């Protein structure tokens, strides 16, 4: 019996230009009901804004929370469920699950249901969520670009066994990192160094906001890109991107069942300089 009614339509990014649902929505938006609030939710972070829909609506862009704020949100959500989580444990949870609040809420509620007494530690989160400290997909990625092929290879199986992690998701992270390093190396080749190079990498992330990097600090990531850029000339970046495309195609091939094997080949092809992979 309220004065207004709210209707929410999700996943509008799935609409194609000539689908009937999109056509009906556009017709309605051209002459909307005065007592209805229609909310269209576009969930795909990488999808471009639908210009026709945006023209007839008010577009509101909602970015993910940065990792630090997501961790604080997890701490508050845990208290609402009667449990206390140590700050380091919340940080590990964000690094593992990401900054999506729905996914974080689910994991926090699992921790609450475990019925532990006292603050929940980093080790307890690792045991309940299924990830060891230092063995997240970002830790694996760091080992690849640090050139520690042996460590990255040992971690492949453990990382793939974690909830929500797939070979394609790991490939997306590798690809986004390679593009970031390549852009940072371009600045490096123009004699940009030190804090200026880190700032250039940070600004790149702010403009692109790659979804693959959700859950980590942009400032810390900018420092890594700047450090990696010194040992990643553009020729090496291009070669690694070619290897990544081959691996990504293999992972998306429905006949391939051994994700671990594909990723191991990629680790040795990307982590080691070309002279060492012969």
Please characterize this protein's 3D structure:
The chain has 278 residues and is mainly alpha-helical. It folds into three domains: 5-55, no CATH class; 67-129, Helicase, Ruva Protein, domain 3; 137-276, Zinc Finger, Delta Prime, domain 3 (Up-down Bundle). The chain is 59% helix and 4% strand. The protein contains 13 helices and two strands; from the N terminus they run βαβαααααααααααα. It has a two-stranded parallel ribbon with strand order 1-2. Strand 1, helix 1 (20-30) and strand 2 form a beta-alpha-beta unit. The N and C termini lie far apart (73 Å). The model has no long low-confidence stretch (mean pLDDT 86).
Number of domains: 3
Helix and strand content put the structural class at mainly alpha
The CATH architecture category of the largest domain equals Up-down Bundle
- Element pattern in H and E: EHEHHHHHHHHHHHH
Distance between the termini: 73 Å
CATH topology value of the largest domain: Zinc Finger, Delta Prime, domain 3
Low-confidence stretches: none
Principal-axes shape call: globular
Give a quick summary of the entry.
The protein has about 280 residues and is mainly α. Helix content is about 60%, strand content about 5%.
Question: Which helices and strands occur, and which strands form pairs?
Answer:
Layout: E1 5-10, H1 20-30, E2 36-41, H2 51-55, H3 67-80, H4 87-97, H5 101-113, H6 122-129, H7 137-145, H8 149-160, H9 167-188, H10 194-208, H11 218-229, H12 234-252, H13 259-271
Parallel strand pairs: 1-2
